[in-house]
Amino acid sequence: MAPVVGIIANPVSARDIRRVVANAASLQITDRANIVLRVLAALRACGVTDVLMMPEKGGIRGHVERGVVRARAHGDTPYPAIHLVDMPVTGTVADTHRAAAAMRQAGVAAIVVLGGDGTHRAVVAHCGSIPIAGISTGTNNAFPEHREPTITGLATGLAVTGKVPAPVAFAANKRIDVCVNGGELREIALVDVALVTERYIGARALYRTENFRELFVTFADPEVIGMSAIAGLLEPVARDESGGLMVRLATPEQRQAGTCGTILHAPIAPGMITPVGVTDWRRMPAGVPFVPEIKAGSIALDGEREVSFSARDRVSLTLRDDAFRTVNVGGCMRFAAQNRLLAGAPAPLPATA
Amino acid sequence: MARKISMKQAINEALDLEMTRDPSVIVMGEDIVGGTGSPGEDDAWGGVLGVTKGLHAKHGNRLMDTPLSESAYIGAAIGAATCGLRPVAELMFIDFMGVCFDQIFNQAAKFRYMFGGKAETPVVIRAMVGAGFRAAAQHSQMLTPIFTHIPGVKVVCPSNAYDAKGLLIQSIRDNDPVIFCEHKNLYGLECDVPAESYAIPFGEANVLRDGGDVTIVSYGLTVHRAMEAAEALAKDKVEAEVIDLRTLSPIDWDTVIDSVERTGRLVVVDEAHPRCSIASDVAAFVGQNAFGALKAGVQMVTAPHVPVPFSPVLEDLYIPNAAAIADAARRTLAPTGTSPRSIAA
Amino acid sequence: MQTDRIKPIVMPKWGLSMSEGKITGWLKQPGSTVNVGDDLLEVETDKITNVVEAGDAGTLRRVLAEPGNVYPVKSLIAVLADPDVPDAEVDAFVAGFAVPKGDDEEGGEDAGPQYLFADTPAGTLRYAKRGDGGPTVLLVHGFGGDLDNWLFTIDALAEKATVYALDLPGHGQSTKAIADPSLAGLSAALLGFMDTVGIGSAHLVGHSMGGAVSMRTALDAPDRVDSLALIASAGLGREINQAYIQGFVAATGRRDLKPVLEQLFADTSLVSRQLVEDLLKYKRLDGVDGALRALSGALFANGEQASVLGGDVAAAGKPTLVVWGKEDRIIPAAHATALGSNARTEVIPNAGHMVQMEAAGTVNALLKEHIGRG
Amino acid sequence: MTENPFPLDRDDLLKAYRIMRTIREFEERLHIDFAKGDIPGFVHLYAGEEASAAGIMMHLKDNDRIASTHRGHGHCIAKGVDVHEMMAEIYGRSTGACRGKGGSMHIADLSKGMMGANGILGAGAPLACGAALAAKVRGDGGVGISFVGDGASNQGMFLESLNLAAVWNLPAIFVVENNGYAESTARDWAVAVDSYIDRASGFGLPGVTVDGTDFFAVYEAAGEIIRRAREGGGPALLECNMVRFYGHFEGDAQTYRAKGEVEAIRASRDCIKIFAERVIEAGVISRAELEAIDKEVLDLIEDAVRAAKSAPLPAPAELLTDVYVAY
């Protein structure tokens, strides 16, 4: 049997306040649906005949179905058959959790994720060892790489059909585990954990740098946007090396007093290049729990305030190497080129797995 | 000082004077500046028939082109009126009320009453009315009766440049929503108009001609047809009193009743369709309130109950003319008061 | 040809805008004897219907204009001559009659501006100027009036005088703002006007409130005033018809204004639709309501006139003519005698407050004589 | 004293709570009194949606105008309309906000910047554009806010208004209160492009979606949107995802809703409960303080109902007044 690919497309990512405070982009529903259709075409071209999709009520599904029906009426079958996960739709992040778990249970070969860092985090929390292929449709996206989705679809198709060997096709990724009160609450972050003084979740997005205090990142990349950029501009840490970086940020008082070491102009959100006072930073080795210094505030995961905590709460952060797998799109496509996987075949590539 | 200007110029002058007098007066509408954002001239049109030409140069951004979006900008004018501005919104052709009527009759008309007297909506909606422009069924209607039916809006329809200026100034100063109907075939008509500002009060009909034999009541363009009919009747020694209602809501019943009580005969001329028209309204009111004075049945001369046709030969038949009015007057004078039912009714 | 024995009767020109008139009826039959001041015929214009009085005596030898027809101003409508003038001579006169050219400096019927405007310290004031040479006469209208109140007067006086008529501030087509609505303020505006148009001194002819303004001017600037002619004048007693003043100020429509205006005339039929409409057009102008309220408040508050100047004027000794309509319902004709022997006083029967219009011929003759003496 | 981690000071937190609690009690009381038959006409209750009205209105002054919907009680209270006058109006009394001539669907108080609840769905959007235009012409820094339900967002008037506001760059804000139901019809079915943000994007407006049951989320997003508008940044759209505790109108059997749906949202998505837990947990406000407000609000509503019931009915002559300024 040909491998089944899961698709989780979040209809509501990139709707937050950064559209007002920072002119962030907003990808329309029809564009998201068109991305799904492009991925489907790429998967089919690689021999994937069935996909399992998360149902949603945001409008993606209807548009995708129209595309499929129209292609069929045209006499083409460029798309795999679409199956929907049998689950209720709540319109909340719980849908993503449930869909990822269901896909894992169904034994999908990979999950293509359309969303921002938050959506990817939600999938990773429940997909176990199933590799994911990320496509950015969010705002503050450090985790999914920016790339034409057709290529992501091709790479995924080549990977799941075994045309690209697993050691090349999949890459290991780090994450940070957040533990509150010894396990009363567990959360994860794929890229960064920021501790901020605001103790309300509010509109979630992080944009008031004066409230930032501590920052923990799995990788520090000066080419991405958001918290990771702050770390990346101090000391780059690659996705594939062990451990991350921990950065302490200055309070407004420290900045005013001039006692913070560095003022960094960091692209913390689309269009927002903001001075951030940095006190110091150091490497964050894998497997070592870190306890934040601030006693009360909110924990932002991958750029969004998620949890508020007070002095009574015990918070610890631990970075894990090799925590989950992703499709190595660049690696797959380079392998495909070297081995002429997409050359000379007059018909869709036969499935070999 | 008075000088001869056209009704189009008189309207332009009224807007100019009021915008100069009162900074809360703004003017908006489709193409009223004309050319906003286009590569050519600014103020290229100054209104689709040039009524607002030149005002943009004097008043700048207080003259606003709008998107083709009547519901939004008529509503915005109404909303702004409740917030202290005195907007004059041009609906271009009154036929376009179909796409914004809610804002006029459910919103503007009702605010004062619905909010217990606590809201004022000093908005003016200018719109061209009337047939004879070879513009057919959707650009030629006389929809004054529809607005007159709605409590809370006032309805004005001047017949000449002097009245247009004074009534428009009154409309802008009035604290109720006013539908200001401009007959497009009167735009070029000139008469003596003072250069100064003046306001003609609402509900004050104009008696254009004294006469003791028959009363002819009309408004807008057909006032001129009524005057022509009166001149023709005078040759037969029939003296017609011609009343120009000027405003339809409020309406000057006293002048109509006074006249009918002297003449005993009434012809009502209305360019609208006959059913539920200004003509039927006046006829009914006189029937109820001056029945004893009537010496003959009231005659209505209206457009027929059909859409405005395009072909000039048909459109000319559609519009009430002087001969029909004179005939109607003669019918009231005929020994037997009854007359054949008109095909229009 | 002995044309001095033959007197033409022409279509009168009443007011600057009149170009033609309609004969509504002859009051004298051909062949009847006519004395000066007799009612000859009725003429209707778009403004007013009025009686044409005889300016000469004689026998009505020819009636050329038919009732119901319209004739241009100054065209020959009838001929007066003594009974002994032969018919042939009368016919020759008629055949040879040429409509005289306009005698004003504009040189023609419609050639020049009918109205002029002067920028004075009291604002822009509209005025008319007719005639040339001879004494200078300045006509001053009353409360709510304008220079057209002298419709039947100005051309008659202009035959032998240079006649000015102005719109006071707040009136006619002059500036509507009145800086000082007192008699002194209006008098200052009048003097400012005289300065602006270059009138050193003038015979002041004032009607109603204009009479009081003229008196005030004669007292404040005696060397600028050659004589006074006071027609139904204010300033000669306390009484005034308060209902008229209030009604005039308050009226906004034809139906309420017409009965007010009817009080101005002995013959109420003179209040035509057009007269009412013209006054409404004036009253609707921005600023007029405020001006009238300011004036009535300053001059006629509490039902009486604020200023009585008769004693001072009598003492000043200017040649003064007082004319009144016996039927005046605005200011009682009894005020006519206020100056006693210091003035010539004429009370004209069958005329109301607008006596200069209702009995134009008589009043014009009195004015001509008064000015001629001065 | 504990440090206040919230973006509002204690007084404002208490004020926000009082607003939400007042709305809730007002609506709960109407629900009961309507069932008893005490109230003439229709009422559409705002219970469950309080965080939206309070979170937005906490940013507004009297010269900021709002155009409300048929479900307007919450907007009125949050905008400062007198509760006694509102109750009297709903009871059809001469002491009502509209002297008994408007009723529940037309409560207005222009002096408070409340341009009226509106029985015509979507009609408020052009009016709010007008308010924004007036503010812009006068340069007084005011904004115009249109509230619209998820259903009425399909109205041409609403969509035209998005365009007009963008073209004129008005300080206009469009708040879509998305409670999932257009009367009885599901939003998911009735709205073609399923994201309101996409609708805004289509007209060049930025859009933000927030959890409308989270006062702080609404407050923060509305604050940024309103500030942007005041600063000349132009119009924006705010979608508040929220829940409706009652039916479309009182008397609605709500057979279109899922079994247990209302119980579930009352248990887990009650915006007032969520707010109270947060502020108490943070140690900024005590439970006793909130309970004291609860008591005062109950007394206020009780007094308003008592006053409304004993207030005079409109005199017959009132039928013919207030149509025109003069006629």
UniProtKB/TrEMBL annotation, chain A:
The entry's keywords: Kinase, Transferase
GO molecular function: kinase activity
Keyword hit for Chaperone: no
InterPro entries per UniProt: AcoX-like (IPR039065), AcoX_kinase (IPR011391), ATP-NAD_kinase_N (IPR017438), NAD/diacylglycerol_kinase_sf (IPR016064), NADK (IPR002504)
Range of residues in the leader sequence: none
Protein name, entry field: Polyphosphate/ATP-dependent NAD kinase
TrEMBL record, chain B:
SMART domains per record: Transket_pyr
EC number: 1.2.4.1
Keywords on record: Oxidoreductase, Pyruvate
Matching SUPFAM superfamilies: Thiamin diphosphate-binding fold (THDP-binding), TK C-terminal domain-like
GO molecular function: pyruvate dehydrogenase (acetyl-transferring) activity
Principal EC category: oxidoreductase
Superkingdom assignment: Bacteria
Keyword Coiled coil: no
Span of domain Transketolase-like pyrimidine-binding: 5-189
InterPro entries linked to this entry: THDP-binding (IPR029061), Transketo_C/PFOR_II (IPR009014), Transketolase-like_Pyr-bd (IPR005475), Transketolase_C (IPR033248)
Protein name: Pyruvate dehydrogenase E1 component beta subunit
UniProtKB/TrEMBL annotation, chain C:
Enzyme class: transferase
Entry-linked CDD domains: lipoyl_domain
Record EC number: 2.3.1.12
Keyword list, A-Z: Acyltransferase, Lipoyl, Pyruvate, Transferase
Protein name: Pyruvate dehydrogenase E2 component (Dihydrolipoamide acetyltransferase)
Entry superkingdom: Bacteria
Annotated source species: Azospirillum rugosum
Cofactor(s) recorded in Swiss-Prot or TrEMBL: (R)-lipoate
Gene Ontology terms, MF aspect: dihydrolipoyllysine-residue acetyltransferase activity
Entry keyword annotation includes Nucleus: no
Domain Lipoyl-binding: 6-81
NCBIfam families in the record: PRK14875.1
Pfam families: Abhydrolase_1, Biotin_lipoyl
Automatic annotation (TrEMBL), chain D:
PANTHER family, A to Z: PYRUVATE DEHYDROGENASE E1 COMPONENT SUBUNIT ALPHA (PTHR11516:SF60), PYRUVATE DEHYDROGENASE E1 COMPONENT, ALPHA SUBUNIT BACTERIAL AND ORGANELLAR (PTHR11516)
Broad class of enzyme this protein falls into: oxidoreductase
Catalysed transformations (reactions): N(6)-[(R)-lipoyl]-L-lysyl-[protein] + pyruvate + H(+) = N(6)-[(R)-S(8)-acetyldihydrolipoyl]-L-lysyl-[protein] + CO2
Molecular function as annotated in GO: pyruvate dehydrogenase (acetyl-transferring) activity
Keywords on record: Oxidoreductase, Pyruvate, Thiamine pyrophosphate
UniProt KW Oxidoreductase keyword: yes
Function field: The pyruvate dehydrogenase complex catalyzes the overall conversion of pyruvate to acetyl-CoA and CO(2). It contains multiple copies of three enzymatic components: pyruvate dehydrogenase (E1), dihydrolipoamide acetyltransferase (E2) and lipoamide dehydrogenase (E3).
InterPro entries xrefs: DH_E1, PDH_E1_Alpha_Subunit, THDP-binding
Domain Dehydrogenase E1 component: 20-316
EC number of the protein: 1.2.4.1
Alphabetical list of Pfam families matching this protein: E1_dh
Record protein name field: Pyruvate dehydrogenase E1 component alpha subunit
Cofactor list: thiamine diphosphate
